[in-house]
Structures are given as structure tokens and as C-alpha cells.
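Re: that chain you flagged

S.,

Sorry for the slow reply, it's been a week of failed gels. I finally had a moment to sit down with the sequence you sent. For the record, here it is as I used it:
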Amino acid sequence: MIEFFLNGRRQCVEAAPATSVLALLRETLGHCGTKEGCASGDCGACTVAISDPDSPAAWRTANACITPAHQLQGCHLVTVEGLARGEALHPAQAAMVECHASQCGFCTPGIVMSLFALHESRRQTPAAPLAPQALEAALGGNLCRCTGYRPIRDAAHAMATQPDSRPSWADDPELETAWRALGRASRATHYHTPQNLAELMQLRREHPQAPLVAGATDLWLGVTQRLEQWPEVIDLSQVAELRRIEAEAKGWWIGAAVTYREWEPLLQTHYPAFAHLLERLGSAQIRHRATVGGNIANASPIGDTPPVLLALEARLRLAGPEGERELPLSAFFLDYRKTALRPGECIVAIWLPRPEDDAQLRVWKLSKRREDDISTLLGAFHWRHTGERLHDVRVAFGGMAATPLRVPTVEAALEGQPATAATFADAKRALRAALTPLDDVRGSADYRLTAATNLLERWALILDPSRDDTQEVALDAYAH
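Prediction finished late last night. Pasting the C-alpha cells below so you have them in one place:
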């Protein structure tokens, strides 16, 4: 049984473990405004807004097609049907009408929901100009084949000029109290929501075949694309030890179920190049739900965060039947989709060291689309530049082999050397000798090797003392 609020009304429904929010809305609750487009979290037609008791004023967009229905427990779900107040449209809807921002209309409900969340996030500062970056982040996960996007962007700016009509449920003083009373722990028997690590370990012993679900942004494709059905699942989103960020003198333990959105402020302060990468890691809908632990455990050779974490010498805290242990991330990836996790183990947290004062990090991602796309190749480069020489050099790539990996021979060619053209020429030769890249639909082996070599050249250009700051900004902007 799942208990939640939908557009201000309490719902209590049964759902099988592999039921998505989209299926629950359309097939069980009869709310068909939310559309299915790609069924993989790419197009945004199914975008909905979700708020939970921990942050009731914050509306997070999500792809309903790959969001597990059971994760609605204790939440408030809003769909396009719940925005108008009688005949008065919400500013997101009114602006879309005024700007003629809909043609076939299939993607429109998802776009409206993204604009709704954007509008609500700006409610405290409605007169402030809408920054292009904020607009791109809000709409980056919504595709439209008809309009060319200009009228949609116009609608985003026009929301501030519309009458501020709010849904009737937004003025219900008793709604939040009733909503908070639901609680986050499920009472169902086929999906389990442990609240701490001890409960999780017990459930893993009792249900060894049940898949672990956190953000589900990749796992749920098994349901939508391969039509898998699971008799039960274990949800990680409420496990306290997996949900926190612990600060220590030398770094941070990032809980495996911390989402990218929750992790982003820390990275913006201490690792801005890493934070910038997150802006290209999926869409806002994905970043609201996807977790760093899931990206690592997935063990994809084109996962975006592992190469960066390898370059930062991250470690993992694992837990299993025999207790907890720590493992360098470099020892975690064994082969394609194969990891060092033992039976019954899971990732609890990821150690992120504090940056040294003179350390630098660059992260460059190459993909067919700039926004909301999978990497063809990703390079992460860490170093300290003391005097005229490079130290603590670490070079990692994703998309070059069966696993994300560091390249020790390239690091050795640069370590302790001056940042000259001759030094980087040696590094390029070492790279070509060390790697035999993947060859697939995203890029040939020759393309990947050439591109990876060119990333070393880009790094060399940034270190060139003859360049000015304008050139470095241009290089970084292009690379990202």
C-alpha cells in the first residue's frame, strides 16, 4: 500500500514492485495528462513535480517513467492536472498559451511541469532576472520536435508577467500537516524501505535476490525497455547512513544515496570543475534523483563520475554480512559491469578528499549532444603546478576501456616534469601505447584515441604560460 498526496488529495493505492509513477498515474489513477515518450528518462514528456516532508516547499522535477511508484510514499505528487485554480491557469500554463509554445502538445505537459517547478523556485525573488543558466537547467531535460524551443523559452520569461494564480491545494492550511503524518516508511510486503544500515543488511539476508533501488534512473530501464518484473525490491532512499554527508578534517564521506542535486553545493565550493560536469550529467529531472553510489555500482565504462573520483583518489566504504570495509575506488572496477562487491555487500559512502590549496582539476566530457547525453569520452586531470614542474599528476578516462581507469604511464610521463610541449608529447605517446579504446556506436576506437590525445593537448594549452586568462576561459568553456 502506497500513501501519498496527488494534487492535494490523499491517495492510498496498491502497486506491484515494478510499477512506475507514470503507470500508476495513467493506468490506476486515470490521470492521463502525463505522457510517455521515450520510457527512458530522456525526453521529459512524463515530467512531474514531487515534494517530500523534508523539504515541503521545494518541488523537484522527475521523469515519471523511471521513478518507482513506491517512492511516492509520504510525498506530494503534482501533475499538469493539478495546476489550474478553476478557470485560472497557473503562470506556467498561461505563459505557454500566450507565447504559442505548444504545437502537437504531446510534450507540453512535461514542459509545463518543468516551468511550474522553475516558477515555484523563484517565488521568493520573482522580480530577479531569469538567468540563462537557470533556464537551461530547468528545461534541459524536455525535448520538443515542433516548436524550435524559442516560444518555450519566451514562455519561461513571460511567467513573471502573468497573474500569480496558485492551485487551490496550495492554500490549504491542513494539507501539509496531513501530508507529514503519512510517514516515509512503507507498509507493503513486496517492497522494503529500511531506515538504517542494520535493517538493510537484515533485508539483504532475507531477500538476497531483491534488487537494490535508489534513484532508479538506470535500473528502471530494465522495466521499461526489457520488460523485467521483480517480485520484490529493497529501497535505499531512506537508509540514514546512505543519505548523509559527513565532514571530516581531510575530506567528506558522501552517502551512496545522496543525489547529485544534494551533492552539488559542496562541489561548487571545493571542486567547481566537478560541479560543472554535473550540469551535463543528465537533466534536472535525473539529477534530482540519481545517486553517486548508483553511478559507481552500475560499473558502466561511460559513467561520468568514476573517472573524476579516480583522479581524486576516492575511496569506498562497503558494508556486507561480514561487516564494513574500505576499498580504493581504483580497486573496485574489475571488468565490464563487474565489481569487487562481495555477495550481500553494498556501497555505503564515497570518500572525497579536500583539495590542496595549489591543486587543480579539469574535467572534460565529449558527447554527441551537449546537454542530457551519455559520454563518448570523459577525461579527468588532477595536478599541482609548483614552480615550473607538475606534481601529484593523476589522469583518468571513461569510455576508453571496459572500465573507467587511470593511466599510470601518462601520469609517470608528466610527474615532476616541466609543462612543456616535449613533456606532453611524451605523455601522448604513452597514452597511445597504453590504451586500446572501445569501438561502438558512440565513437570508433580511432576517434576515442585521437580525442583523448587532444584532451592532453588542451591541458597543455591551459598550462602554457604565454596564454592569457581569456584563452583559458575559452578553452574550458569549449571543453565542457
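What I noticed first: The CA atoms of residues 92 and 115 lie 6 Å apart.

Talk soon,
D.
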